Amino acid sequence: MAALVAALLAAPGPPQAHGGEGLLATMPPAAPLPHRLDQALLLVHNALPAQGLRLSAVSAACHQCAYQFLAFIPASNGSSGKASRVAVAVDTQHPLSLLLDGFSDDRELCKIYYHFGEAGNYSLEVKTMSRSTQTVSCDLIINEDPINSYLPILFAFLVYMGILALVIVGRLLMKIDPVRNWVCKKLNPRETDRMINSELGSPNRADYLSSDPSQHLWSTVSRQRLRSLDTFRGLSLILMVFVNYGGGKYWFFKHESWNGLTVADLVFPWFVFIMGTSVSLSLSSMLRWGSSKKKVLGKILWRSFLLILLGIIVVNPNYCLGPLSWDNLRIPGVLQRLGFAYLVVAALELLFTGAGAETVTVLYQTKMPYDPEGILGTINTIFMAFLGLQAGKIILFYKDQHKQIMSRFFIWSIVMGIVSAALTKCSKDEGFIPINKNLWSISYVTTMSCFAFILLLLIYYLVDVKRLWSGAPFFYPGMNSILVYIGHEVFENYFPFKWKMQDSQSHAEHLTQNLTATTLWVIISYVLYKRRIFWKI
User: Fold this and answer.
1) Which of 66, 138, 421, 525 is exposed most, by the fewest CB atoms within 10 A?
2) pLDDT grade, residue 341 (50/70/90)?
3) With 80 as the cut, is the pLDDT of residue 25 above it?
4) Backbone dihedral region of 134: left (phi > 0), alpha (psi from -120 to 50 degrees) or beta?
5) Where in the sequence numbering do the catalytic residues fall?
6) What's the confidence (pLDDT) of residue 508?
7) What b/e sequence results for 49-83 when a residue is b if at least 16 CB atoms lie within 10 Å of its CB, and e otherwise?
8) Residue 315 lies in a domain
9) Which uninterrupted H or E stretch holds 363?
10) Are residues 114 and 212 in the same domain?
């Protein structure tokens, strides 16, 4: 989430006439500010002999926000001619609009729009250009260049690309007969694709094929899972785990404060979408195998109850330290919303079928407590799952017709995209209904559905149609999504998923820790897959 410059550090305020406390740190001229994440040092020099200054700022990420007071800069020493100086820590995540005005007369002296760099050292020099006209100049000078805080991301990308290259080389070696025969003898792999991982209803392909022998079977092995669904689910889950662990403390790996989208805002809707897709396939499977609707409804109710119960346990982690009071008990949560959305969508589909957090307190100074998984958002979550269910019905109806399936995924994506463009006017804040993850606005749902249909189309084409990609490594956590999700929540603060960092103000160390933890869950899910261990509810 974007952080407002006003929330970084508490600071002494100006004289009593303006009251309260400032919102950024001010320090004596000789005292350096320590390097902190997403902050830079700004030294404000006031050379005006008889004029104290007030420095205010507003973040470009804060929509229609008022300027927030930062610091008071006293007048210069008239006798010595020495400028006064105040040190201020400024936010580097988004561009800032700085405003300098006179403390005594509120006269606006200058405005500066600038994007500061992390760990940079800057000077803002305020002086009189002409004594006769009282013209004031404000010059921003770079004293020390900022660091490139995005280099750790590039390095991590190169590391994972290196691992991918090794895997590709290994696969090429496996095409050599002597090497392949030796490996097969040592490992003795077993086919585990036939295992049904039904935690959110992803079925075995053979389950939802018609019993009519005249109908076409899938072009691939009839008992093989539809790997694209597990791959899609696994991709969403792994991104969710990464951003939940902190995402290297980068703002774009945190949820957007209000309107707009970041990487973190993509993953939960995709998980809901693929749950809806799986609902269609799993219900069809159970009904085709002769289960009564009454029995299927019982399974839906039980699965929903377990998801909600597990969610309540996960979001109340202090239960081992003593009993929870009703005042501190939290009911809503991610799994709870999934469980309720699953219940509604699956029950409706069964009824009509034949034989799926961060707050905004930092940026907008919200004081009223609220739960980010509230009732209003749950309604639109159900709609998101319903759209995913349509993808599942397309897969069922056009079993072996890949072009028909992909063309309809594409059409749905275009329709959802057009609806989103109309609702948002293709802008972040100025549309009829802006994209807002906190509220799960309808434009947020249609936009995420647009992306989901396109992503599912690509994965389906690569994994199940052309078989150019096995779905690894996302396929494995996708097969054990509930276990991975609950595991990463419960063991989040335990080694080896977390350790005491040498420098908590380093993006590189945060990113290393978060990527290591996420990779460990991929490895765990791979080992469980090989051992044919799947947690079903």
Assistant:
1) 66
2) very high
3) no
4) left
5) 255
6) 92
7) eebbbbbbbbbebbbebebbbbbbbebbeeeeeeb
8) yes
9) helix 361-364
10) no
